[in-house]
Specification:
- By secondary structure, the chain is mostly helical.
- It has a single domain (about 5-255), classed as ABC transporter involved in vitamin B12 uptake, BtuC (Orthogonal Bundle).
- Helix content is about 85%, strand content about 0%.
- The chain is built from 12 helices and no strands.
- The protein has helices at about 5-30, 30-50, 55-75, 80-100, 105-110, 120-140, 140-150, 150-155, 160-180, 185-200, 205-230, 235-255.
- The protein is globular, with a radius of gyration of 18 Å.
- The N and C termini lie far apart (about 40 Å).
């Protein structure tokens, strides 16, 4: 295996680990559709970045940050549910992104291309995924308590509004890092499916976290390697592998019970 490809697969492993960890909270909070829709918001940002010869990851990060603040603000100041707000951002962003993305770059933006990840983007992705995991871990208890009751979070002297905002920002960041690896259409799957697979097997919250990370890493590594072997797009290969893990864990759970 070429050293450059090996480095890119390692980058994918870090992205998969962070995606799986963040996804574990998203599944518990019943926000799976939010994670999927957010990945599509990155497309117009990537298109604008490409037009100015900038890194698509930077464009995706800016677009997702703006979207997260918008979703958070409207969800706190209106009676609309976050899922409805994300749906509005999702459809508008996807339509605008497809219209303004240059046709030669459209497939790569939608489905990812691991070969286009350079050293700078790779090292940045590794550093940011570690940062994202550490930040999320620092308020993991508040996130879990928030699943049970927002009042429990408030009793600890923690603002649930701030926790939710920071969490959404971390989700936006990992989606931005992963869109070049998996693509905007499929990055949401890498956040959700490993966590759902882990839920099929876990017996406690710690094992749930660890299995979510493990399935995220394995889906990314095996999917990226398979994409290189069979000369297919990275994104679909990664998602197919993650779906196979889900199917296997579902069968294990069914027959174990």
């Amino acid at each position: 295996m070429e050293s450059n490809l090996l480095f890119q697969i390692i980058v994918g492993a870090f992205v998969g680990a962070a995606a799986g960890y963040l996804g574990s909270f998203m599944v518990l909070k019943r926000m799976s559709l939010v994670g999927d829709a957010l990945s599509h918001v990155a497309l117009p940002g990537m298109a604008i970045a490409i037009a100015f010869n900038l890194s698509p990851i930077l464009g995706a990060l800016i677009a997702l940050t703006i979207a997260v603040f918008g979703i958070w603000y409207f969800s706190e100041t209106t009676s609309l549910y976050p899922e409805a707000l994300v749906g509005v951002f999702f459809t508008a962003s996807l339509a605008i992104g497809i219209l303004i993305t240059p046709e030669p770059d459209l497939l790569e933006a939608l489905f990812g291309n691991i070969e286009k990840i350079n050293l700078t983007e790779g090292f940045l992705a590794i550093a940011l995924t570690v940062f994202i995991i550490l930040v999320t871990r620092s308020f993991a208890k508040s996130l879990i308590l928030g699943v049970v009751s927002e009042e429990l979070v408030k009793s600890l002297g923690v603002s649930s509004r701030k926790v939710n905002l920071i969490y959404l920002l971390m989700v936006g960041a990992i989606v931005a890092l992963g869109v070049k690896f998996v693509g905007t259409l499929l990055m949401g799957a890498l956040v959700i499916i490993p966590a759902v697979s882990a839920k099929n097997l876990s017996h406690g919250i710690k094992s749930y976290y660890l299995l979510s990370i493990l399935f995220g890493v394995l889906s990314s590594v095996i999917g990226a390697f398979s994409a290189n072997v069979f000369s297919v797009s990275t994104g679909p290969a990664v998602v197919v592998v993650s779906v196979l893990f889900f199917a296997a864990t579902y069968l294990v759970r069914k027959f174990r019970v």
